[in-house]
């Protein structure tokens, strides 16, 4: 499943499908000295409550394939395991929600791909600067933690009160399972948008 989505989401691993979306986003400038610690959290060697929902989402997909194999012979057991999986995902979503409520996570209109992100910002960043990027995807409250590098930062011709900067970043450290989750999310959002467009046209 992940392999199929990855092929749809990325052409030759240099070009990724992009989509406009809304996410909750927390950005923190990152010094080189702190990079190793954050990388440990990204790759799961140090527990992080923010990423537990993403971990569970990956496990749920693997579990769904296993359940499909024996659901015909053991429907009650399969149903029980699905309910347990749902409860665990709900709990993981609460962990992410707690992180969001206790931090600075504005809801922003972004341009999202599995390779990077374009987002509005109140402050200027320099090209090549490293950022810790905590992004929450709707509607499942899935937290994606990455280390990103600034590709460009441009001042927008904005009105007073608007967010003045547009920043593009590429992911430097990201788990491949999280990249797959981003691919799946982007494809689902594209399907929703196309379905809504067809509904309007009809």
Structural summary, described in words:
Strand 2 (107-112) and strand 3 (116-121) form a beta hairpin. Helix 1 packs across helix 5 and helix 3 (52-70) packs antiparallel against helix 4. A six-stranded antiparallel β-barrel has the order 1-2-3-6-5-4, surrounded by four helices. Helix content is 46%, strand content 27%. The chain is globular and about 60 Å long. It has one domain: Thrombin, subunit H (Beta Barrel). The model is unreliable at 1-8 and 10-14 (pLDDT under 50). It is α+β, with helices and mostly antiparallel strands.
Fill in the keyword field for this structure:
202 residues; disordered N terminus; single chain; Thrombin, subunit H; alpha+beta; 6-stranded antiparallel barrel
The CATH topology assignment is Thrombin, subunit H
Question: What's the SSE pattern?
Answer: HEHHHEEEEEH
Beta-strand percentage range: 25-35%
Q: Can you identify the CATH class?
A: Mainly Beta
| Number of separate domains | 1
Total strands: the figure is 6
Rounded to the nearest angstrom, the distance between the terminal CA atoms is 32 Å
Main beta sheet strand tally, sense and closure? 6 strands, antiparallel, barrel
Unreliable parts: 1-8, 10-14
